Amino acid sequence: MEREFNDTGLCVPGRHYMADISGKIEKIIKLIEKGKYFTINRPRQFGKTTILAILDKQLNEKDDYAAIEITFEEIDLDIFQNHESYIHELLMMMLARLEFLNLEKPAGFIKENLEKITTFPGLSRFITQLIQNTMPNKKVVLMIDEVDKNSDNQLFLTLLAMLRNKYLQQNKGNDHTFHSVILAGVHDIKTLKAKIRSDDQRKYNSPWNIASDFKVDLSFSPTEIETMLQDYAREKNINLEIPAIAQKLYYYTSGYPWLVSKMCKFIDEDIVPQREDKNWSINDIEAAFRMITNEAYTSTLFDSLAKNMENNKKLYDLISMIVINGAGFSFTITNPVINLGHLYGILVPGKHGRCQIHNRIFEQRIYAHIMSEIIQTRYMKFNGFLIPEFYTGTRLNLKLVLQRFQTFMKENYSNRDAGFLEREGRLLFLAYLRPIINGRGFDFKEPVVSDEKRMDIVITYQDQRHVIELKIWHGQKYHEQGLKQLSDYLDTYSLKKGYLLVYDFNKNKEYRQENILFEDKEIFAVWV
Question: Any transmembrane segments, and where (predicted)?
Answer without folding.
Answer: none
